[in-house]
Every structure is written in C-alpha cells, then in structure tokens.
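Handout for the seminar on molecular recognition.
Each group receives one record of this type.
Step one: identify the two inputs.
Step two: read the structure output and locate the region that could contact protoporphyrin IX containing FE.
Step three: write two sentences on what you found, then compare them with the reference statements printed after the record.
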Amino acid sequence: MASTPVDDTPQGEPLVYVYEAPVRLWHWVNATAITLLFVTGYLIGSPPPSLNGEPSAHYLFGWIRFIHFSCGQIMAVGIIFRFYWSFVGNYFSREIIRPPVLSRKFWKGVMLETKSYALAEHSSRRYVGHNPLAILSMHVLFVWVAVFMVVTGLALYGEGEGPGWIHTVFTGPVLLLFGNNSLTVHTWHHFGMWAMVIFVLVHIYAAVREDILSREAIITSMISGWRKARKVTPID
Ligand code: HEM
Ligand code: HEM
C-alpha cells in the first residue's frame, strides 16, 4: 500500500491519512451541489403553480433554473477535477474512479464482501479505504451516474443556449443517441435523479452504520482525512 502511517492512536494503532484535502473539499462541495440539484431539478420537472405578478419581477423559476445550472457546472468541473486527482493523489484517491477491474483478487474481494453483507459468511477482512464491494458500487452507482447526469445536463443546457461549443460537443451527439428526441433526454436525466437519490440515501445510511459498528473514524475521516488502521487487507 502506497500510503504510510505517520501517527498513532493512544492505543498504539497506526493512523492513516486516507482522504487528502482536495478529495474532502470535493466531497462536500459535490454533496452540497447535488443536494441543490435534487431540489431544483425536482421543481423543474414538477413546477410549482404560477405566482401572481410579472414573472420577470419575482423571477421564481429563473432562480430555480439559475441554481440548477450553476450547481450543474460546479458538479461538472468537480468531476473533471476528481478524475485528475485520481492520477496525482494518493492510493485511496484512485479507488472509486479507477478500480482495479483486471485484478482477480479485487473480484474475489467483491464476492466475499457481498456474501458477508448477505450474512452468508463472516468477513474478518479490514480495509483502510473502501472495501471492494463499496468501490464497485460507488464506481457504477455514483461515478457512472454522475457522468451521465453531467453529459445529459449539458446536452439540455446546450439546447436552451443555442449554437456554441456546448451544443456541438454535447447536445448534437446526445440527441442523436436518444433518437433526436429532447423529451427522452429529459426523461432519462429525470430517472438519473432518482438513481442518485437512492445512492445518497444508501450511502448516508452505510456511512452512519459503519461509523457506529466498525468503531473506526468513518464520518470524521471525510472531515479530517485520518483513519485508524488495524491489520489491513490490500484490495488488489
Ligand atoms: C445529480 C445531478 C442532477 C440532478 C439530480 C438533476 C435533475 C434534473 C431534473 C429532475 C430535471 C427535470 C427534467 C424533466 O423532468 O424535464 C433537470 C433538468 C435540467 N437539468 Fe439537471 N440534474 C442534475 C445535473 C445537471 C447538470 C450537471 C446539468 C448541466 C449543467 C443540468 C442541467 C439541466 C438542464 C439544462 C435541465 C433542463 C431545464 C429546463 O428545461 O428548464 N443538470 N435536472
Ligand atoms: C449528495 C450527497 C453525497 C454524495 C453524492 C456523496 C458521495 C460520496 C462519494 C462519491 C464518496 C467516495 C469518495 C472518494 O473515495 O473519492 C463518499 C465518501 C464518503 N462520504 Fe459521502 N456523499 C454525500 C453525502 C454524505 C454525507 C451527508 C455524509 C455524512 C453522513 C457522507 C459521508 C461520507 C463518508 C464518511 C465517506 C467515506 C466513506 C468510506 O471511507 O467508506 N457523505 N461520498
């Protein structure tokens, strides 16, 4: 494992610096942006009743769309940055972005963790970062879905904006992929929201549960970066 423990708990267990500051900053900026994207995206799909008065005066839907597009762009830049960091950051920064899918040991770990979650087998394995099953689920259910939301979101944005580079790079190819039907892109972007909502609910439940049951710093590790390392199993 590339990362070296550099501190100890009072009980003499090594502490490992798991999540570097850029990953932590990205996590919380991304989580805030996605929460605002849920609220504003839901309102775009199920708009509130019209208000009295001149729309340009209260600008209600204008603000909803403005917040959605701003957070969407923050999320898009964040994803690009997070990919970049998986190349220059520590061992743990690669885990969910570029999992070791060619390693047999990784897939064995995925199977063993799946059995353990299904209560079919007891797992005594310890991982400092994410376990192989968590890596695989975050890779598919978060990374792929996030990229899908950014690509379809930018395609819809380029459609509203008109000719320009966003239209050329995203709107044209995405519309082609969805049978030249903008409504289908809206619908899939909408489905993506519910996939992401399910991910976030399960993710927060798992983080809180693991924090209590593993008696290790799980939630605070995404704040301070440090985690206690007992005897550890490498993932690949
Ligand atoms: C987790 C991230 C996101 C969620 C949950 C989300 C959710 C939604 C939802 C539910 C809609 C309404 C779709 C409909 O029923 O017609 C929508 C529309 C839209 N979203 Fe997103 N979105 C996300 C990311 C993005 C990103 C990254 C962008 C890119 C800038 C974006 C741009 C748009 C645009 C342009 C529309 C259409 C607005 C309109 O027609 O007025 N979204 N979004
Ligand atoms: C929209 C909301 C959220 C999203 C999309 C999200 C997404 C993610 C992702 C993608 C990771 C992996 C980070 C990496 O390895 O690069 C992660 C890790 C983590 N998140 Fe979140 N998160 C959200 C909210 C939260 C909240 C509210 C909490 C606290 C209760 C939380 C606690 C954590 C913790 C503790 C980890 C590290 C887990 C571990 O090492 O097993 N997250 N999150």
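Reference statements: The chain has one domain: 12-228. The chain has nine helices and three strands.
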